[in-house]
């Protein structure tokens, strides 16, 4: 039996205030959770439509049609408001391929649709407020799939669809819950990363939401894809305690982690594996291990020279910079690498005296500024696959100094997520074959690939990214930044998404093998 081949949303589960023609003159709006469902369906790879009938106000019809257009849905006008109309309109639009259609309707309008063909239709009924039941999401543990399902909130619909698809497709299909900030999830979904129908290797993706009980969601997934840094409330770097005790997650995240541990749900990737990524000092120390990959007579790969500062007013600062092999200009970064608002507030400093007045959150990591002819190589490790892209970057130190002369060489302050100091008159572009460093050496892809595999193994991360620059003069390949679960948006979707799914499936299969 096929899965859900199309979803029809009745207007009654979307519209608020004046639905059905009542409350004349009241503003028309969507019910809570409706927009969440519409956004999710748009990129779910499940055909979707909105149905309505006579009796709605012009404002209500216009609102529904606006959503149909915005989300590229189909629109079904049911003249009689009966099941026969629905079946006819949907079959004309979507055909009669294998699987079941799903109709989602509010309980006060359910009666005409309870007679839908039980072999081709699933009816999902949204309960009235005050009539909720804690037992509604239970059919995942049953062998028989019910044809009529009651839900308490529209946020349950993605789970209902995904659970139905899993049971229809067989036990080899796995449901992956994912949690990340909405904008990040939307970006991934737009690229087709999170379908509600099985991928080519048997994965179904469903968003985790704090609007539903965490326990029932975790119990119904086979693994969790987690961007934990999106759930950080605060990160304390001055404490001498273990780093795990210095990160405060949202209450919802804390509950989610408790439940995944309680029922042994695999997490991609566990928080214990990402703590090094959150600490720029730990990353710099870890990159010292790259030395073991270098061979005499070959390009060298390394991390930048660095120094931790807990205070900008140190009397021996200049001496400490020299001892750390740091020369000006240098780049100053907060020690906490991500998850908090000011983690990306940075500065490029040209004079030692200017450190004392810096407005960068302490403690900081002072990092070598590597001259690299404005060329940055972004590498992405997605499971066993390694991809890269070439990007424009900041200019060499002498150019930065010229750009800052009009400002008396005061530090350049910037947010690395929004803007970087750029030399607009000397930008470069091209492909890997045309790029060379100051010693006419192109990037050593084998060396960087070896480093990618070493980082993946050392950090034990499934998906990570890192930035490489090639130092002018020496040809050193310098890894200047490391992050986890990047968007890898520079990689074409038809290449990136299968690799993404393969990496997740391999991780879940590995976890299953280890558990048996």
Automatic annotation (TrEMBL):
Its cofactor is Mg(2+). One of its GO terms (cellular component) is cytoplasm. It is an enzyme of class 2 (transferase). Residues 299-493 form the Inositol 1,3,4-trisphosphate 5/6-kinase ATP-grasp domain. It holds the Pfam family Ins134_P3_kin. Its EC number is 2.7.1.159. Keywords: ATP-binding, Kinase, Magnesium, Metal-binding, Nucleotide-binding, Transferase. GO terms for molecular function: ATP binding; inositol-1,3,4-trisphosphate 5-kinase activity; inositol-1,3,4-trisphosphate 6-kinase activity; inositol-3,4,5,6-tetrakisphosphate 1-kinase activity; magnesium ion binding. GO terms for biological process: inositol trisphosphate metabolic process. PANTHER family: INOSITOL-TETRAKISPHOSPHATE 1-KINASE. Monomer. Belongs to the ITPK1 family. This is inositol-1,3,4-trisphosphate 5/6-kinase.
């Amino acid at each position: 039996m096929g899965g859900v081949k199309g979803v029809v949303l009745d207007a009654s589960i979307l519209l608020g205030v004046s639905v059905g023609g009542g409350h004349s003159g009241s503003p028309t709006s969507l019910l809570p959770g409706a927009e969440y469902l519409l956004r999710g369906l748009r990129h779910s790879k499940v055909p979707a439509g909105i149905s309505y009938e006579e009796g709605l106000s012009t404002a209500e019809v216009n609102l529904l049609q606006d959503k149909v257009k915005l989300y590229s849905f189909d629109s079904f006008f049911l003249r009689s408001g009966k099941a026969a109309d629905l079946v006819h309109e949907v079959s004309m639009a979507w055909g009669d391929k294998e699987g079941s259609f799903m109709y989602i309707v509010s309980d006060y309008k359910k009666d005409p649709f309870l007679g839908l063909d039980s072999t081709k239709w699933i009816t999902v009924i949204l309960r009235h407020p005050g009539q909720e039941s804690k037992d509604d999401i239970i059919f995942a543990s049953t062998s028989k799939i019910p044809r009529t399902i009651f839900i308490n909130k529209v946020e349950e619909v993605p789970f209902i669809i995904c659970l139905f698809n899993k049971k229809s497709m067989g036990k080899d299909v796995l449901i992956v819950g994912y949690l990340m900030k909405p904008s990040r999830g939307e970006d991934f979904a737009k690229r087709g990363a999170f379908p509600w129908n099985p991928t080519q290797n048997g994965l179904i993706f469903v968003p985790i939401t704090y609007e539903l009980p965490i326990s029932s969601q975790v119990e119904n997934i086979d693994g969790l894809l987690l961007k934990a840094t999106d759930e950080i409330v605060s990160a304390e770097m001055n404490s001498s305690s273990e780093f795990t005790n210095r990160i405060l997650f949202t209450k919802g995240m804390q509950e989610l982690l408790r439940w995944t541990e309680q029922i042994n749900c695999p997490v991609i990737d566990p928080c214990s594996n990402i703590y090094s990524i959150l600490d720029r000092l730990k990353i710099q120390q870890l990159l010292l291990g790259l030395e073991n990959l270098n061979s005499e007579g070959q390009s060298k790969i390394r991390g930048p020279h660095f120094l931790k500062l807990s205070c900008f007013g140190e009397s021996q600062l200049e001496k400490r910079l020299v001892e750390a092999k740091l020369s000006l200009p240098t780049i100053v970064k907060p020690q906490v690498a991500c998850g908090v608002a000011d983690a990306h507030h940075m500065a490029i400093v040209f004079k030692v005296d200017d450190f004392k007045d810096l407005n960068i959150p302490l403690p900081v990591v002072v990092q070598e500024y590597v001259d690299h002819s404005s060329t940055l190589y972004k590498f992405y490790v997605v499971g066993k696959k390694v991809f890269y892209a070439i990007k424009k970057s900041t200019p060499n130190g002498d150019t930065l100094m010229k750009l800052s002369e009009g400002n008396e060489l005061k530090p350049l302050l910037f947010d690395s997520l929004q803007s970087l100091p750029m030399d607009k008159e000397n930008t470069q572009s091209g492909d890997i074959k045309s790029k060379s460093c100051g010693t006419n050496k192109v990037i050593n892809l084998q060396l960087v690939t070896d480093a990618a595999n070493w980082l993946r193994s050392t950090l034990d991360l499934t998906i990570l990214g890192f930035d490489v620059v090639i130092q002018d003069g020496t040809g050193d390949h310098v890894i200047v930044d490391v992050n986890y679960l990047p968007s890898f948006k520079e990689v074409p979707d038809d290449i990136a998404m299968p690799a993404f799914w393969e990496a997740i499936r391999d991780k879940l299969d590995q976890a299953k093998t280890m558990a048996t």
